Amino acid sequence: MSASARAPRWRASFAALLPDDGPDPFTAWGRLIAVNALLLARSLHGPANEARPRLVIPYERHVADRAATLSGLARFLDVPVPALEAPQPDQGQEAADATFATTGHKDRLTARLSPGDAAGVSESVAATFEAALQTLGPHVTGTTREWVAGDDLYELQPPVARASRFRRRPPLPWCPGPTMRRRPGFGGATCWSPTRG
Predict the structure, then answer these.
(1) 33, pLDDT greater than 70
(2) pTM score, two decimals?
């Protein structure tokens, strides 16, 4: 993303927001959240779309009160409010997929982050918005801040260590000689040379 931000088309608006500085994962995550929202806001507030009506429905509001969200959407579109049906369970759906589903009500929102990591993400989002004030202006940045508000609605839980479904392979041996390579398909246990076979 940093390389894309430095391309001529995006440089003036986004290069300062995505420096090529090898950030820690939580800083990178915060930048990604902010820049994704800024890209959308910039497009929606561009000259061609300025007068276009728009409705933003945050994920948090949607899953907390689906009926009110659907009612507001119907009013915005000037259509009758459709009846909410209970979602049918998908037997092929993995449990992890339900984390991001918007088809059901959620009484609470959970983020599997430590308080320090969550603060790092939030600080990165805020810093990206501060930098965006200079390049994208207060109108786009202010709108975007409203869109991503709601991180205070999440309950923090410690990250869960996940067991890999793949067995960890033993470290591959070092192969002597500049032309030696690990033999493909043999788990790296055998060395071979493309010139000597």
Answers:
(1) yes
(2) 0.67
Reading the block at residue 18, the tokens are 């995505």
Q: d(Cα 171, Cα 184) in Å, to the nearest integer?
A: 15
The Cα–Cα gap between 130 and 141 comes to 8
Percent of the chain residues topping a pLDDT of 70: 71
Q: Which residue has the tokens 């709601």?
A: 150
DSSP string for 37-105: HHHHHHHHTSTTTTTS------HHHHHH-HHHHHHHHHHHHT-PPPPP-PPPP-TT--GGGGGS--SS-
User: How far is C-alpha 160 from the geometric centre of its chain's CA atoms?
Assistant: 19
**C-beta atoms surrounding 89 within 10 Å:** 8
